[in-house]
Amino acid sequence: MSSESRTDGGQTTTIEDRPLKRGPFSRWVENSIKNPQRVYRSMFYVVTVFFLLTTLFPFYWLVVLAVTPPRLLSGVGLYPPGFNPESFLIVFERVPFHWFMFNSFVLGIMTTVIVLVLASLAGYVFGRLRFPGKTPLMLAILAISYFPPAAFLLPLFELFTGNVGAVIGGVYIHSPDLFNTPWPMVLPFSALFMPLSIFILTTFYGQIPDGLEDAARVEGTTRLGALFRVIVPLSAPGVATAGVLTFISVYNEFFFSFLMNNGEAENWAPIVGGILGLQGQFDTPYHLMAAASVIGVLPVAILVIIAQEKIVSGLTAGALKE
Amino acid sequence: MGDVKLEHVTKRYDDVTAVDDMNMHVRDGEFVCLVGPSGCGKSTTMEMVAGLTMPTEGDIYISGTNVTNLPPKDRGVAMVFQNIALFPHMNVYKNISFGLRLRDYDDEEIDRRVERAAEIVQLEGMLERMPDEMSGGQRQRVAIARAIVRNPEVFLMDEPLANLDAKLRVHMRTELQRLHKELDTTIIYVTHDQAEAMTMSDRIAVIDSGQLQQIDPPLTCYNEPANLFVAGFIGSPAMNFVDGRLTDAGFESKNFSVEFDPADLGLDAGTDVTLGIRPEDVYLADERESVGDPTMVIDAVTDVLEPMGDEIFVYLLLSEDAETGMDAQDSPDQLLMSVDPDSAIEEDENVDVVLDRSRVHLFDTSSGEALLHGLVAPAQAEGVTETEAESDD
After folding, report:
1. B32 partner at 20 to 30 Å CA-CA among A65, A278, B96, B205?
2. pLDDT exceeds cutoff 70 at B20
3. H/E element holding B157?
4. CATH 3.40.50.300 fits B4-232, yes or no
């Protein structure tokens, strides 16, 4: 408080603000309001660390289990109590794990090929042609991809085991028994994973200038020829994205992979069959199952690391590409 | 080589008729330009010839074969597109040989033909380049090479020069003419640029609102336009139009009249007619001697001058209350004149002008059809000139 003499003899009193007493929290709040970027950045780190922990820790735990010697399995901590890389070899001795992996690859590649061919045709139609009912049809296709696979299981199981039939022309025709073949897996996979690919390819194909397709057709291709000779090569990033995503989805699929075969490698059981096949009647060798899981994850991890740039650009660039 | 015939070709979209009952015959080896304002149906016509668009009605014949229902690849046509449309993922060689490879030619034949095509369009040594490494003109030449390499019966060119800069466009125009001379193939060429049409084609097909207005050699379209649209579209700057009426004494409009006897020219007095006169056929009265057959003097005031270097465009106002607007040549009160660059002429000056009677066009105002070109009746030509000259003095 200070006072000044005024010319008329009176006094002017000025009251100055006293600095508020603030604790560290108040100061932090004040800083955050002035500089929100700091908060956003710290939030980003919190979320990232949380996300990395929840996704990477289980994988770390798998590695820990895999290298733990069997007799120490009951006392595993945050790090392996011993080191026993043998498990990675025993996996291949107990079951033909390489065969299961081969099955997984074949299923993945078959599905990817089917999906890419059919989704290319659909993407051409949705991306480049005009016809009534286009939007509702596209939405219907997308809706299918959100159906829970379990909803299809019973009817498809009945169908693929030859239990569905009808009397046609006086003869009872029943569906083919496809159990223990690749088809009861490949067919539902293709149907379930197709909508995403159709969506991606529609975006890409829709952006190829009409002139290029016209030029190809005048030069001597059919519409189909123009699609596969000009439009598809020019949409390579989109096709790669759709292909990689489809392959990974099939490779990771559990439901149909588990139920549409008897779990034997010679009956087209994929990796899940191999991992569960390690389980004996009297023991559950967690270290072997963990080792098998790690081996199974590696191909996809490598694929993603190689293709990640394409996948990211394919998913985002599709909408922005000139 | 081949001729192209369109018979009653119509293309309707949901609620728009893009091409309306088009009949046209392009002869073998002919260079025909389709011109018209944008949206007039010229590109649709070409797409139907190429097979990229199916006509709603009518038939298209190429070399006598009905190709209406054939896909583009089986029509023996090649096309050059406005946006050039080179395949960006292929180099020049692969672009040019695309059609040949699809038709399973053997490698030596492909090599030979590609070399020859590259030579014609002067692209030797660039066969390994990718399209994005080339300039606009080079890309356009690749597109042309891709079209000629298959020896098509008919070339279709859809505004191939529209995306090039002005200088290159003039250059490519000459090259295309040279190419046509060399190959002697039928060429159908779409453009909205009437200068391109005038300079290159054997015949011009003027199209408006999906209908063929006139198909004739360039100078015929210029000198004897079939109707008001062709008259206004061909020629730059456009023809002057003056609305008026045909009386027993000749043509009468708000500001001036032109004397003649309609009966001599086979016209009926009393109809509404539009007089058309090109800017270069309007003369200053002082220069009347150089005009074979001038009209009476018309009083005018100069409005704006546009010196072009080799000539001056003069906007004339014909009456006091003239409205100056954008459509100068459509107003009965205005006239555009082209004069010699040496003429001593100023803005806002009173001038006397005359029209060259032999270059006056008359159109039926309501139908737009041309009634006659040139006011010289065969028998009376001399007499009219004399009386006209006297009355003017």
Report:
1. B96
2. yes
3. strand B154-158
4. yes
A219 has a chain B CB within 8 A of its CB: yes
Q: Are the beta carbons of B79 and A218 separated by less than 8 Å?
A: yes
Shortest distance between the Cα of B51 and any Cα of chain A, in A, equals 8
pLDDT at site A4:
59
**Of A122, A116, A241, A256, which Cα lies nearest the Cα of A186?**
A256
Give the pLDDT confidence of A22-66 residue by residue, as tens digits: 788 888 888 888 888 888 998 999 999 999 999 899 889 999 999
pLDDT at B378 exceeding the cut of 70: no
CATH number of B237-392: 2.40.50.140
> By C-alpha distance, which of A143, A104, A109 is closest to A246?
A109
The rounded distance, in Å, linking the Cα atoms of B169 and B348 is 38
The answer to whether residue B82 scores a pLDDT higher than 80 is yes
Q: At what angle do helices A286-320 and A236-252 cross, to 10 degrees?
A: 150
Distance (Å, whole) CA B139 – CA B123: 10
- Which sequence spans correspond to the domains of chain B? 4-232, 237-392
Report how far residue A251's alpha carbon sits from residue A253's, in angstroms, rounded to the nearest whole number: 6
**Radius of gyration over alpha carbons of chain B, in Å?**
25
pLDDT, greater one: A12 or B349:
B349
Mutation to test the A interface, candidates B43, B80, B82, B89, most A Cβ within 10 Å: B89
**pLDDT of B393 above 50:** no
Q: What domains sit in chain A, N to C, each tagged with a CATH number?
A: 24-85 (no CATH), 96-286+293-320 (1.10.3720.10)
Tokens 């899940």 sit on residue: A272
Q: Which of A208, A219, A228 to mutate to test the interface with B (most CBs of B within 10 A)?
A: A219
Q: Which of B73, B83, B102 shows the shortest C-beta gap to A209?
A: B83
